[in-house]
Amino acid sequence: MAVTSHDVARLAGVAQPTVSRALRDAKGVSAATRRRVREAARSLGYVPSQAGRALSTRRSRKIGVISAELSNPFYPALLGPLHDALAGHGYRTVLFTDRGERPVELDPLLDGSLDGVVLTTSERTSSLPGELMARGVPFVMVNRTVDGIEADRCVAGNRVGAAAVAELLAHLGHRRVAAILGPESTSTGQERADGFRDALAHRGIDLPPARMVHGPFDPDTGRRGLIRLISTEAPPTAVFCGNDVIALGALNAAASLGIDIPQRLTIVGFDDIPMAVWEVFDLTTVRVDLPEMARSVAALLVERLATPDAPARSVVLEPRLIMRGTHGPPRRDEEDYESAGPLHQMQPRIVRADTEWGRDASRT
Amino acid sequence: MAVTSHDVARLAGVAQPTVSRALRDAKGVSAATRRRVREAARSLGYVPSQAGRALSTRRSRKIGVISAELSNPFYPALLGPLHDALAGHGYRTVLFTDRGERPVELDPLLDGSLDGVVLTTSERTSSLPGELMARGVPFVMVNRTVDGIEADRCVAGNRVGAAAVAELLAHLGHRRVAAILGPESTSTGQERADGFRDALAHRGIDLPPARMVHGPFDPDTGRRGLIRLISTEAPPTAVFCGNDVIALGALNAAASLGIDIPQRLTIVGFDDIPMAVWEVFDLTTVRVDLPEMARSVAALLVERLATPDAPARSVVLEPRLIMRGTHGPPRRDEEDYESAGPLHQMQPRIVRADTEWGRDASRT
DNA sequence: ACCTAAATTGCATACGTATGCGTGTCAACG
DNA sequence: CGTTGACACGCATACGTATGCAATTTAGGT
Q1: Measured between alpha carbons, how far is residue A280 from residues A325, B114, B236, B243, B282 in Å?
Q2: Residue B68 in contact with residue B100, Cβ under 8 Å?
Q3: Which residues of B touch A363 (CB under 8 A)?
Q4: Whether the Cβ atoms of residue B364 and residue B349 lie closer than 8 Å to each other
Q5: Could you give the dihedral angle defined by the CA atoms of residues B91, B92, B97 and B102, in that order, rounded to the nearest 10 degrees?
Q6: Backbone φ/ψ region at A332: left (φ over 0), alpha (ψ -120 to 50), beta
Q7: DSSP helix/strand/coil, B116
Q8: Which residues pair with A241 in a beta bridge?
Q9: B52 and chain A: CB distance < 8 Å anywhere?
Q10: Which of A69, A107, A251 is facing B47, going by the closest CB pair?
Q11: Is there a contact between B8 and B40 (Cβ–Cβ < 8 Å)?
Q12: Fewer CB within 10 A of the end CB, N or C, for chain A?
């Protein structure tokens, strides 16, 4: 049924290995032969079998990428650039979905059909990196890391970014501050929580457990979290969200509760996913340069493939506060009068984010 | 490096083919031997090589799925269920991205590494189906179809759905109606436009070219389209959007223009993607049952693989109007007085959509 | 105890490509 | 004119698994 290199060889009047060499532009083939072979291959519509090639070379030029459900918009935003970056190095991307329920299926990662793996969803105690190391499968961790694993990684400066948000809120004059955070079982959830709480404390602002909500990185965490926080006796005047997806959920809850943003409530996210710039959200957030992260990861992995025994490397991307429309000073009548001072007038210079980033992203 | 079936055979004291049979539960292996082999395989951590297996069986149990950029939320909404449905039949999904710029790379679809293909992005004149037929690669078209191709397909009743929207708008009393449509080069774009225009005409409502905008299925089409439509002399009181992604763009533009929805303007989408139910959108739209579509497609493809010569089948899913919060009667002072009648009082019974659908979808 | 049939296992080989190595050809050089 | 390379190409084989077929063992029946 399928046409093989033997068929091409027969038509071109050469041996099969010559076909293999000619079509790959390997040396040892005369220009005339090469031309004949190409012509024969073209006329037969020959396409080299990946299975045969992979078996022979023991390389697939495919990279497995473990992602969460694609309906979580953070992942498409990371995967698009990652796909392109890997393609730039000649690798194809194979997507694996981690639904969180049960651990990722291991066999497809170990059956030799992948040259390497990119982990984006690991929890801090995941055993996956250990398994991969044991089997000698090269891998890189992105965005999230795993406790006690010395391996290539590319992450955002989560503590620094969260601290910048704390600074912003303090400068704006907020004293009753809350947070809707991601799971403590993830490095991003943990680090952003720590960075935020520590920086607040440094400013003399308390973040009591009653004003911290934890949940998965999904909009419903933001919805429920905001409703819970807002229905307390002394509701917060500002809420930091563990990522943008949570923040969008919080904004939705605010909309359905009729809470004016930012007059009545400040909401800040983290990541700057493409939707953050949508007019209905206009979310103030911390930008993680996902295209840059993708490029870093691809580079790390490719170098790892070339030099398997090189020491592990770690890349940290510095995040950047993006001022949009969901932050502002607390309302006077909402302020915590005991500690109210001139602080709330110290509104920082508003740097409007360029609107190009992600504006067209749901198609680009 | 990697452990092969030969290694397992040596440890278990049997021949390699026996290992192959034992681990696949093939007949002709005694229970005792099977146990010994399993034990040996387990202790060595043996994972069968996909390349070897594919080469030998000439089947990969992989299905290629051609999708648009994942940042377009329609595709994750379709791909998630599709992935699950195929997995239910024992097939793994391999994702290919069609960026629209240049045609999809053909070789990876023909190199024998896929048992079948699902097409979701084809334009009406795409040559891809022809190529696949010529090479004998089984495939199914989903959502969109290609002109003149007799092949398995599963699509939504686009004309019917669009006509239902026209009916709704007419009943509400709208006379100045506009549409922001998808590309005429796609079957969905074309059919929804035709269905809408024809049903309006049947109601005596005109849809002049000046009130029709065409563009890619992305939010920016909705943004720009709405701005253009609204800034005309006699702006429409209702806008039908070619899909939800366009509608979300239109809603964003409305938000930034300060247009009250639905008091000032009715906006209706198509597809009912998970985000349509978000409170900030609360989009009235036409539901296409994507999980059902995914199941249909998987079934069609699996049966095609079993019986390659069976006649092509076509499945059409009937869409359903979902009433949410972006539709209403036209404002009195916005009405087209010449044709104003009691029609605008005939508001249909509002059937509130269940909010479960897609509520958690950005994580589910 | 013997014969037959069934069950179990091993042997040989196919799948399609890539590559080390040997052979043959031709040109350049002494 | 003989020698030495360089180059082009074919031969043989490896990669890991699956399968048809033969060989061997086991069970079953009289």
Answers
A1: 10, 42, 22, 18, 12
A2: yes
A3: 68-69, 71-72, 216-220
A4: no
A5: -60
A6: alpha
A7: strand
A8: A180
A9: yes
A10: A107
A11: yes
A12: N
Q: Where are the alpha helices (DSSP H) in B233-315?
A: 244-257, 290-306
The per-residue pLDDT for range B30-74, each reduced to its tens digit, is: 999 999 999 999 999 999 999 999 999 999 999 999 999 998 999
Contact A259, A236 (CB under 8 A): no
Nearest to B49 among A79, A112, A218 (CB): A112
Token pair belonging to A145: 């890391």
What pLDDT was estimated at residue B333?
A: 60
Q: How many CB atoms lie within 10 A of CB B153?
A: 25
In the block, residue with structure tokens 């957030």: A285
Looking at the predicted structure, is the pLDDT value of residue B315 above 70?
yes
B41, amino acid identity = A
Query: A79: which residues sit within 8 A by CB, 6+ positions away?
Result: A65, A67, A70, A93, A95, B70
Task: Place B357 in a pLDDT band, splitting at 50, 70 and 90.
Answer: very low
* DSSP β-bridge partners for residue B240: B179, B268
Cα separation, A46 vs A34, whole angstroms: 15
Backbone angles phi, psi at B220, to 5 degrees: -65, -30
Q: What is the structure's pLDDT at A183?
A: 97
Beta bridge partners of A177: A238
d(CA A108, CA B105): 24
Query: Which of B279, B290, B364 is most worth mutating to test chain A (most A CB atoms within 10 A of its CB)?
Result: B279
Q: Which residues fall within 8 angstroms of residue B25, CB to CB, at 6 or more apart?
A: B34
